[in-house]
Structure prediction request, 226 residues.
Amino acid sequence: QQQVKQSPQSLIVQKGGISIINCAYENTAFDYFPWYQQFPGKGPALLIAIRPDVSEKKEGRFTISFNKSAKQFSLHIMDSQPGDSATYFCAASMGDSSYKLIFGSGTRLLVRP
Amino acid sequence: GAVVSQHPSRVICKSGTSVKIECRSLDFQATTMFWYRQFPKQSLMLMATSNEGSKATYEQGVEKDKFLINHASLTLSTLTVTSAHPEDSSFYICSAIRYTEAFFGQGTRLTVV
Prediction:
């Protein structure tokens, strides 16, 4: 059972544009929602994360929007750059001691110059 | 941010042999580490949770006798792929928990020939 659904599978954006990636979850016990960036042949790197007590978090060009009632959260990349071209994964975990992450299927972002 | 190092980054082995992959937390202690497997253009699939000083917890469908995990210290977890076969070829990634965040290693590309 896929607990975190991510879309789109791939995304092409022009330089300077806004990239938007969406995720939806099923388990209401999830209380930590990170986004990871992965370049080919590398491990994922934490980009930004949010907890359900806030509806939005911004760090530089990256913003997470969180809708608890809809069980959805999204990543917005403002002023997208070619260097942002990578695969992005959303994830979710519960607040127990396991910190076990459930990953979305990933979105391959290509930012054209 | 916290640093997690994996070794080796790439390994090629012959069918039937065993391969050990190391995951180290370089600047923090980690009582919990996770091992993931990632196929090309796919998401991270959790294989097991590695707990310092106790037996690993394996996800459903993961053969514990084939994927041996040892977490002998607070900074080191190892994954040994025993009697490797070509279908075990994959990208293996570990993560370590610092406070409530997961930090990932750079991954190990295993090729079984």
Notes: The radius of gyration of chain A is 13 Å. The CA atoms of residues 37 and 45 of chain A lie 5 Å apart. The first strand of chain A starts at residue 4 and ends at 7. Chain A has a mean pLDDT of 92.
